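Section 5: illustrative case.
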């Protein structure tokens, strides 16, 4: 049964909780939730996709080089947003790119790219936390607040701690 916010599952993460929505067998949204919220098992219709996401997340928490290739996902967005999300998906674990670098690559403006990045419905799978400002962290999830930047900082630190230069 969906909770009041429409999440079909709420998963544990090292920094809090992740809300998950699924449609037609594919994960369509992942949201960062408060760390003290209750967990919620996946609804029957969402169980297969959520199960694959849980497996991929467990591997990612151990080693950030683990990918999300086996997770069925579908992101709804404009053509421009889709192009931005595809570009973000090419940034490897432990790496960052600036809004300006990606915008130049796409023939866009950093501000427009930042808006598309902030609208990413599949954070972690599409690693928007790897996009930073030229002068610092930038924003995350359309926010520059402590909570959102805390998630971004955690994810980047996790990826740096998992780097294996001789692997």
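Designed sequence:
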């Amino acid at each position: 049964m969906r909770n009041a916010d429409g999440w079909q599952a709420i998963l544990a993460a090292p920094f809090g909780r992740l809300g998950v929505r699924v449609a037609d067998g594919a994960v369509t949204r992942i949201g960062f939730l408060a760390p003290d919220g209750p967990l919620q098992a996946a609804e029957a219709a969402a169980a297969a996709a959520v199960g694959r996401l849980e497996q991929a997340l467990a591997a990612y928490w151990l080693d950030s080089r683990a990918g999300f290739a086996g997770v069925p996902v579908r992101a709804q967005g404009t053509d421009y947003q889709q192009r931005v999300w595809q570009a973000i998906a090419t940034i490897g674990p432990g790496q960052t790119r600036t809004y300006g670098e990606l915008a130049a690559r796409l023939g866009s403006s950093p501000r427009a790219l930042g808006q598309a990045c902030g609208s990413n419905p599949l954070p972690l799978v599409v690693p928007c936390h790897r996009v930073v400002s030229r002068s610092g962290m930038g924003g995350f999830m359309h926010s520059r607040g402590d909570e959102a930047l805390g998630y971004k900082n955690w994810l980047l630190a996790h990826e740096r701690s998992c780097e294996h230069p001789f692997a």
